[in-house]
Design goal:
Shape of chain B: elongated
Number of strands of chain A: 8
Oligomer: heterodimer
Largest interface: A-B, 73 and 67 residues
CATH topology of the largest domain in chain B: Fumarate Reductase Cytochrome B subunit
Order of helices and strands of chain A: HEHHEHHEHEHEHEHEHEH
CATH class of the largest domain in chain B: Mainly Alpha
Largest sheet of chain A: 4 strands, parallel
Number of strands of chain B: 0
Number of helices of chain A: 11
Radius of gyration of chain A: 18 Å
Largest sheet of chain B: none
Distance between the termini of chain A: 10 Å
Number of domains of chain A: 2
CATH class of the largest domain in chain A: Alpha Beta
Structural class of chain A: alpha/beta
Strand content of chain A: 5-15%
CATH architecture of the largest domain in chain B: Up-down Bundle
Shape of chain A: globular
Distance between the termini of chain B: 100 Å
Strand order of the largest sheet of chain A: 2-1-3-4
CATH architecture of the largest domain in chain A: 3-Layer(aba) Sandwich
Chain lengths: 261, 434
């Protein structure tokens, strides 16, 4: 599906003296993680299909510093933030979309007081916007009759009170949406937040992602949908731990919609 | 001699309220040991939160059984205490049921009748609470041991005794029973006490005195108990976090230094500006209660140890040591310890070789947090255990370089190549063509 992906950079736009509608913040996971790269591509496919004028920073993008901040390294976070803000402000960026709720939260809430004030949206919000304004059409019965359960990423849901956009986008799949007992505001974390993604868990009797996967399995889904590259990894690992990888797939909301294009 | 009861009453009242006031002063002093924090913004929203969350109990009913029972006890407590006003006036001026003299009989009867009904409802709720704590053994209560467990039960016993005394006092008050109004419940227990007028009078007086003394003891018990929440829930919800849950504060001291580092015109050998030179270099993060801010310390005193935070915590649910409730209880215990230290050392804190980090809260607990905010969402009174965990992580990383090794690797990668993994920044756009 990666034929003909058009991913212009801000530098290219600048050279032509143009300004894109929106900056796509790919994020470290979206750039380097094999699973997350597929999400980036799926989202770009949607942007291309909707005719969105967008650009990425490319080599000029650096880690938001979010994970360093959650780990307690405020220095590293602020260094990263100020470097990124310098680049973003130089390009006069006003609107940013990202597939990573952690980047979303960090850019939206923690950059402003350091001088980086942007309208930041999560890709599920942006896809909803594209569908609602008629720029992106979603048709077909790819997922008709399937059961999809949505796992709320903490930093999109509880942290920023966005519960409806991903669900509203998923409505377009014509699948049956089933909710886990713990959902929305009360959703259980996948276990990756707060820098846990990058370390071994402390001693316990179970891994958090396995517990969350068990909660998802209670809904007997065909697909576990999520909107975060880290949640995606954790839930995919959980499905493997439960030996369900043959019957259940973990997909990002953007991938589900891209597969219907 | 006829004024003796009035005088004794006045002395008891002054002692009871005076001792409480003294402890409240101490409590405020302890909270003020924390760092100053500006919460003067959004007054309208803050009042609204207090009305909705503390007064309106909106977050209690997320768990309906405990929530509704709690609302009964809460309403009962607030309303029945109107009766205390009458007791105080009667006690000071030697009157008997002054309410009857200033209110129409029907209104007075209605009031006392409502109190009696509430008293019974409170009794029922308290019994269920006791069963939940001691027989049903809900996990969040089962994990409490020692003083916190006893504290929870003592509060319940207090309430049982106070409610019973109130009903006995009404049942044995012959003139009140003869009114035939307001005794909706107490009339049924009248036969228990026989019909000897003198015995009845003695029982009535005893119940009356024990009731007011009991209330004063309970008032003073608060300071030592988790039950402080009945007062502190109000300021605590007022000062609760208003920004999105995901937004962590940016340390200003760090901003200053980072700006200096990134400013190409900064002179690294510059003499600090006048007035700045004496400043102690800022300590990053928190290793003890004095490094926390006043709202965090208020949080600690407000915590009623219900354990909703811990029961929602992903780390705790999967058997890790982290418990947000324990973070709050440890913070309070340490703050009380520091307060006592100050009291015994003539107003100065004397180094005791202990601190919150390590002696109360272990590294293992802190590193188990996923920062998911389930605890702050679960708290019925807007306590933020996550902010304390974060402050302590900041101390560990920035003051002690004591992060787990994998995290140090991750941070080195970000520093060197702008990603948590060892990939080259020049390869950031490779995904497009893979």
């Amino acid at each position: 599906m990666n034929e003909e992906l058009k991913v212009p950079t801000m530098a290219e736009y600048m050279a032509e003296g143009k300004q894109p509608e929106i900056l796509f913040w790919v994020g470290s996971a979206g750039s380097y993680d094999d699973r997350a790269k597929k999400i980036s591509k799926a989202f770009v496919k949607l942007l291309n299909n909707a005719g969105v004028d967008f650009a990425v920073l490319g080599e000029e993008e650096s880690n938001t510093g979010d994970v360093a901040k959650r780990a307690g390294n405020e220095f590293l976070f602020q260094m990263q933030a100020m470097m990124n803000i310098e680049v973003l402000n130089a390009y006069e960026v006003t609107r940013i979309v990202t597939c990573d709720p952690h980047s979303f939260n960090c850019l939206k809430n923690e950059y402003p007081s350091l001088g980086g004030v942007y309208d930041v949206v999560h890709h599920t919000q942006y896809i909803k916007e594209l569908i609602d304004t008629g720029r992106l059409s979603v048709n077909g019965d790819t997922y008709k009759g399937k059961r999809i359960t949505f796992h709320d990423p903490c930093y999109l849901g509880r942290a920023n009170s966005e519960f409806e956009a991903p669900r509203s986008v998923l409505q377009n799949t014509k699948a049956t949406l089933v909710e886990m007992k713990k959902n929305k505001r009360f959703a259980l974390c996948c276990g990756a937040g707060g820098a846990q993604m990058f370390k071994e868990p402390e001693k316990g009797d179970k891994d958090v992602n396995v517990l969350r996967t068990e909660q998802a399995l209670e809904t007997t889904p065909d697909i576990i949908a999520t909107g975060c590259p880290y949640c995606n990894t954790m839930m995919t690992d959980g499905i493997k731990a439960k030996e369900k990888e043959d019957s259940i797939t973990v997909l990002d909301v953007a991938e589900l919609i891209a597969n219907m294009q | 001699m006829s004024y003796l009861p009035n005088i004794i009453f006045a002395i008891v009242l002054v002692l009871g309220i005076g001792y409480f006031a003294r402890n409240v002063k101490k409590l405020i002093r302890n909270i003020k040991l924390g760092r100053e924090v500006d919460a003067s913004d959004n007054k309208g929203q803050r009042w609204k939160n207090m009305a909705r969350i503390a007064l309106g109990q909106s977050k209690m009913v997320v768990r309906p059984i405990a929530g509704i029972l709690h609302i009964i006890v809460y309403i009962g407590f607030v309303i029945i205490n109107i009766e205390v006003l009458e007791i105080i006036i009667d006690g000071l001026f030697g009157t008997h049921r002054i309410g009857l003299k200033v209110l129409p009989e029907s209104v007075y009867g209605f009031l006392i009748g409502s109190f009696e009904i509430l008293a019974v409802l409170v009794l029922v709720a308290v019994i269920v609470f006791w069963l939940r704590r001691n027989i049903i053994n809900l996990k969040r209560f089962k994990t409490l041991k020692g003083w916190p467990k006893n504290d929870g039960n003592i509060i319940l016993y207090f309430e049982v005794v106070l409610m019973c005394l109130f009903l006995v006092m009404n049942a044995t008050d012959t003139s009140f029973q003869q009114l035939g109004t307001g005794n909706v419940i107490s009339q049924f227990i009248v036969p228990w006490f026989g019909d000897n007028p003198e015995t009845l009078h003695v029982i009535e007086r005893t119940a009356w005195w024990l009731h007011i003394i009991g209330i004063l003891i309970f008032l003073n018990y608060l300071y030592f108990s988790k039950h402080l929440h009945i007062l502190l829930a109000f300021p605590n919800t007022y000062y609760g976090k208003l920004t999105p849950k995901g937004q962590f504060n940016n340390l200003e001291a760090v901003t200053k230094e980072v700006k200096l580092m990134m400013d190409p015109n900064a002179d690294p050998f510059a003499v600090p500006a006048e007035g700045e030179s004496d400043e102690e270099p800022a300590k990053f993060g928190a290793s003890d209660v004095l490094d926390l801010n006043r709202i965090q310390l208020l949080n600690a005193y407000t915590c009623t140890e219900c354990g909703r935070c811990t029961s929602e915590c992903p780390a705790n649910q999967t058997g890790k040591k982290l418990s947000p409730r324990k973070i709050m209880m440890d913070t309070r215990d340490r703050l009380v310890e520091v307060g006592k230290n100050i009291d015994t050392n003539g107003g100065e804190f004397k180094e005791d070789g202990k601190q919150l980090l390590g002696d109360y809260i272990t590294h293992e607990e802190l590193w188990a947090c996923t920062t998911c905010n389930a605890c702050t969402e679960a708290c019925p009174v807007s306590i933020d255990p996550l902010s304390i965990i974060m402050e302590m992580r900041r101390y560990l990383v920035m003051e002690q370089s004591a992060a787990p090794m994998e995290l140090n690797n991750m941070m080195t990668n970000i520093e060197n190549n702008g990603a948590p993994w060892p990939y080259n920044q020049q390869d950031r756009l490779n995904w497009v063509n893979e």
